[in-house]
Amino acid sequence: MPNTPLHDTAADPFSEPGFRNRARKGLLGAPSQAIFDPRSGRALGPSDWDLSPEFLGDLAVMGPPRAAAVLVPIMLRPQLAVLLTQRSHDMPSHPGQISFPGGKLEECDTSPIDCALREACEEIGLTGDFVEPLGYLDSYRTGTGFQISPVVAFVRPGFSVARNPVKVSSSIPKSVARLISVPITPSLSARTMMSGEGVQNSTPSSTR
Question: Residue 163: which pLDDT band, with cuts at 50, 70 and 90?
Answer without folding.
Answer: low
